[in-house]
Specification:
Layout (H helix, E strand, L loop, with lengths): L14 H4 L1 H12 L3 H26 L2 E2 L2 H22 L1 H5 L5 E2 L1 H16 L10 H22 L4 H13 L1 H12 L3 H27 L2 E2 L5 H17 L7 E2 L1 H21 L1
Antiparallel strand pairs: 1-4, 2-3
Length: about 270
Amino acid sequence: MLQCVRPYHWPNRGGNGTSAPELVVNIISGTSDHVEVVFGNIIGSNIFNMFLILGIASVIYPLTVHKNTLWREVPYALFATLVFFLLVNDALFFGSESSVMSWIDSIILLVLFVGFLIQIFIGMKRTGGMIGLSVGGKFIVDNAAALAHKFNVSEKLIGLTILAAGTSLPELATSAVAAFQKKSDLAVGNIVGSNIFNILLVLGMTGIASSPLEYPVMLNTDLYVVMIETFMLFLFMFTFGRYKLDRSEGAIYLLGFVAYGIFVFTRL
């Protein structure tokens, strides 16, 4: 692997653009009182991103990870998840009667997001596609809620599965193409960056638009999965090929995705 020193940069520019579906769907869900969809969509998307998308990409082509991604983005993704976990579990940590994401919690997430942006270069985004995303997002949320009621399943299940899979499609496309083109740092950076954007920006903006949002504590188990899969990525960098996510480790991620899917459907 090339070891020359290069200026630090955001390795993909994919996390911000590919997280746009999550942002639109979540803000619409929050303002439409579909609270379970708000949290289920983001947590589910982050699980899909790591277990499924990184798993597929690394099976296609072993992914070399740049040191900046390993030592900055991956720990920051884990840190962001931990902070969110602490902020929304009022009953667990502070003895409150309920657990909510408050306006102050949302501000904290956004401040952390700004702190992350200080380290990276963010390119200008084209905004023309946002109108289509808004219309599509409203359609998705309305029909996801209707689907949940029709089949008598919880909105948490819809958020963790159907919505999470749908809003993760841009990450899947970006990472798969990057893997096929052997641009491995783009593939990994896209996923890690997207997870950071989802937790800090998407949930932060959703909370600003709709707080207070009651947090379903049942999703703590799913948050543990996000933390575990993120820590696994860090550990994988020191096994087999150093600073590389190889095919066998990608297969482990895919097995983790299957196990998680079975868990979700048996639990809910």
